[in-house]
Amino acid sequence: MPNRIERVNTYHRFTGKGGPMSDMNVTPFIDILLVLVIMLIMSVPIAVNNTEVDLPTPAPCVGCVTNPDENTIFIGSDDQLYWNGRAVDPSQLRSQVAFAHSIEDEPLLKFEPASLASYDQSSRTIALIKDSGANKLAFIGNAQHREFG
Which of 76, 78, 123, 148 has the fewest CB atoms inside 10 Å of its own CB, making it the most exposed? Predict the structure, then answer.
């Protein structure tokens, strides 16, 4: 009978089972990621100088009629824009809304289209108000349109 030499299974003491481990070793992966993060941090330049730029401030609106509490933007059935009852064109409305927005305690803007005002004019006016920076906008007069037809 041939001599048989038995070797000790070294995997047995780590896994509790006989046979090689099949788990992935993630330690080198984590080490490489940490090195890459440190390299990224080191390569980001530090801001060492600031450049001051004097930006122009908007001039106050000439001829603006703005109430300190609330203002009404009305669209007539002929698609004419009105600011507090006074007829204005879109550029004047933009300056009125921008001026109202520049007031410290910004007044409420009430948007009231007539029942026969075009949807296109209404949507362009809402976009103009939004682009002018207004934060307080309310839709009023919708109760009169409760019944359709």
Answer: 148
The vertex-122 CA angle with 121 and 126, nearest 5°, equals 115
Whether the CB-CB separation of 71 and 63 falls below 8 Å is answered with: no
Q: Are 75 and 113 in contact (CB under 8 A)?
A: yes
Q: What is the pTM of this model?
A: 0.53
CA atoms within 13 A on the CB side of 145: 10
Encoded tokens for 3? 């001599």
Q: Any residues with CB less than 8 A from the CB of 36 and at least 6 apart, and which?
A: none
Tens digit of pLDDT for each residue in 102-119? Answer: 888 888 888 888 888 888
83 is written with which tokens?
Answer: 């600011």
Q: What is the DSSP letter of 60?
A: P
With residue 81 as reference, give the H or E element that holds it.
Answer: strand 81-83
Q: Could you report the per-residue pLDDT of 10-55, keeping only the tens digit for each? A: 666 655 555 566 778 889 999 999 999 999 999 988 878 888 888 8
